[in-house]
From TrEMBL, chain A:
GO MF: DNA binding
InterPro entries hit by this protein: DUF2063 (IPR018640), DUF2063_N_sf (IPR044922)
Pfam families, per the entry: DUF2063
The name this protein goes by in its record: DNA-binding domain-containing protein
Residues in Putative DNA-binding domain copies: 5-95
Keywords: DNA-binding
Gene3D superfamilies registered for this protein in UniProt: DUF2063
Coiled-coil residue spans: none
TrEMBL record, chain B:
Protein name: UPF0276 protein GB927_023915
Gene3D superfamilies: Divalent-metal-dependent TIM barrel enzymes
InterPro entries noted in UniProt: MbnB/TglH/ChrH (IPR007801), Xyl_isomerase-like_sf (IPR036237)
Pfam families for this protein: MbnB_TglH_ChrH
Organism: Shinella lacus
PANTHER family from the UniProt entry: UPF0276 PROTEIN HI_1600
Cleavable signal peptide: none
Length: 261, 284
């Protein structure tokens, strides 16, 4: 009997129907407003969880619009785990297909950046690579270096200026009219306790992505150069070392190297 | 089984916005309590802060997502995460609620009520046994703030909780605000509820604020909102309990519209004064 009671209680929480049968109160056998407290708690707590993961999106579209969007998402994609830290990873995809938000083309990408920042916040801790680490490497061997990515690292790319829009609405940069609507790339990192979004120079996204999957520095630089003629290796290396995106370096097949030498 | 063993002092629900204040002006806080689910990421600021707090303070880990009152099996993955957390921080106490929050794998993120019957009692007892087996510690179970009742209920809440404690060996977390809220909502006398409560197995008390509204018929309906100071009738109820059982770990919870640290600390100090008075009276 009680399993059925719980099923009916749960089903009614997301429906605009009268409360399920079997509920009561000291003064009424149809405790509509009392059941409504639970309905309201569920809705407010889940949309609230999304608000706290997507504060910049909420700021861009306004509280009311965000809430309506979040409620629509919660109905179709309620959380499947009590781990709300990860709830809403697919909210940006939902927003991309959400008709009323269609005019704000950059919004899903700004939200994807917020997802990446949330993941970085909770990622495992690791000490970033010493910025001087490359100085000790034999210049002839630089091309063979392989980098270990920091657990918090992700590389963000958008066909919209989503990084600038995020930064202005997050209070990281003054709000000014955007002059350039080109796409933008950024590293999302957390070298210590603060999540940082580091804009990438041209070709930087390809370069860092290849390094993050374990390709050598030589191969990553070549591929970035082939894809983007403005790619500049020393600028990108400076970003790499300053950002804390990687934790260690090693030489690919050092034995083989010695053998040839 | 490691027993729940919080210091018999006043504690505070930890909020990250108070971290710097807590570190810069250390005060004698009896213990901190955190919501388990906020510390289930791999690393980052939450663990850095909790690790630091743990160096100098007793800790209570309070779960809000295990759904112990569910008629369906417990989420084993979630229980495993709780185990990892308890192993990492070795808290003085772990507690959860007499409520459910997951159904058919959907997490509803609220503490939902259950009917009290022989059947639900059996389920909850099995779940508490399972939690204590996995964590290898005694857990505390908290009485809920409820807004409605079930026609099928046949057992009083106080009897239901006493029976769970008797069968499983778990302790109870008596939330006196929840008592006041539920008693008002069901037109009962909160003092009667306390008189019937198995106070001998209470290992922790919760104190918090509530808000006031009305039901369909205009009768008082209190909401367990944790967004105000502890209200006078709840303090009075607390003094009654402490007068009867002596000092016990007492937590001030303030989860919404969180005030500045000194306001929360003063609430805990008020609880501490009541504990101190009870200790003096017992010594006399
Ligand atoms: Fe509580």
């Amino acid at each position: 009997m009680s399993a059925a009671t719980q099923t009916a209680f749960a089903a009614g929480l997301f429906a605009a129907t009268p409360p399920p049968a079997g509920l009561t109160a000291w003064n009424s056998r149809a405790p509509e407003r009392r059941y409504g407290v639970y309905r309201n708690n569920v809705s407010a707590s889940l949309t609230g969880a999304l608000s706290s993961r997507f504060p910049v999106a909420e700021r861009i579209v306004g509280l009311e619009f965000f809430r309506a969007m979040a409620q629509a998402f919660v109905l179709l994609h309620p959380p499947r785990s009590p781990l709300l830290l990860a709830y809403g990873d697919d909210f940006p995809d939902f927003v991309a297909a959400f008709e009323p938000a269609r005019d704000i083309a950059y919004l899903p990408d700004v939200m994807r950046l917020e997802v990446a920042r949330g993941r970085a916040y909770h990622a495992a801790d690791a000490a970033p690579l010493d910025p001087q680490a490359l100085a000790a490497v034999d210049p002839a061997r630089l091309g063979d270096l392989v980098f270990t990515p920091h657990p918090a690292l992700s590389i963000f790319s958008s066909p919209h200026p989503a990084v600038s829009i995020w930064a202005m609405n997050a209070g990281e940069r003054p709000l000014t009219p955007l002059e350039c609507w080109d796409g933008e790339d950024a590293l999302v990192v957390r070298p210590q306790m603060i999540v940082e979004v580091t804009p990438l120079p041209p070709g930087g996204a390809i370069f860092h992505r290849l390094l993050a999957v374990g390709e050598t520095l030589g191969l990553a630089a070549e591929a970035a150069m082939a894809a983007e003629e403005r790619f500049d290796l020393s600028t990108n290396l400076a970003v790499l070392l300053r950002s804390g995106a990687f934790t260690a370096i090693r030489e690919e097949n050092p034995d083989e190297h010695r053998h040839h030498a | 089984m490691i027993p729940s063993r919080l210091p018999r002092r006043a504690g505070v629900g930890f909020k990250p916005e108070h971290f710097a204040d807590i570190l810069s002006a250390p005060e004698p806080i009896g213990f901190f309590e955190v919501h388990a689910e906020n510390y289930m990421g791999a690393g980052g600021p939450p663990h850095a802060q909790l690790g630091k707090l743990r160096e100098d303070h007793a800790l209570s880990i309070h779960g809000v997502g295990l759904s112990i009152g569910s008629m369906q099996p417990l989420d084993r993955d979630h229980l495993a995460r709780l185990k990892v957390l308890c192993d990492r921080y070795q808290p003085e106490s772990f507690s959860e609620h007499l409520a459910w929050s997951t159904h058919d794998s959907v997490f509803l993120n609220d503490l939902l009520p259950l009917p009290y019957t022989e059947e639900t009692l059996t389920h909850v007892v099995e779940h508490v046994d399972q939690v204590q087996d996995v964590l290898k510690r005694q857990m505390l179970l908290e009485n809920p703030a409820t807004y409605l009742l079930f026609e099928e209920s046949t057992i009083e809440e106080t009897v239901f909780l006493a029976e769970i404690a008797r069968r499983t060996g778990c302790g109870l977390l008596l939330d006196v605000n929840n008592v006041f809220v539920a008693a008002t909502n069901h037109n009962l006398d909160a003092r009667d509820y306390i008189a019937r409560f198995p106070l001998e197995v209470v290992r922790e008390i919760h104190l918090s604020g509530h808000s006031e509204t009305v039901d369909d018929l205009g009768a008082a309906l209190l909401i367990d909102s944790h967004d105000t100071p502890v209200k006078d009738p709840v303090w009075a109820l607390y003094e009654t309990v402490i007068g009867r059982i002596g000092p016990v770990a007492s937590l001030v919870e303030w989860d919404n519209d969180v005030p500045a640290w000194p306001v929360l600390r003063d609430e805990a100090m008020a609880a501490q004064r009541i504990l101190d008075a009870a200790a003096r009276q017992r010594a006399a």
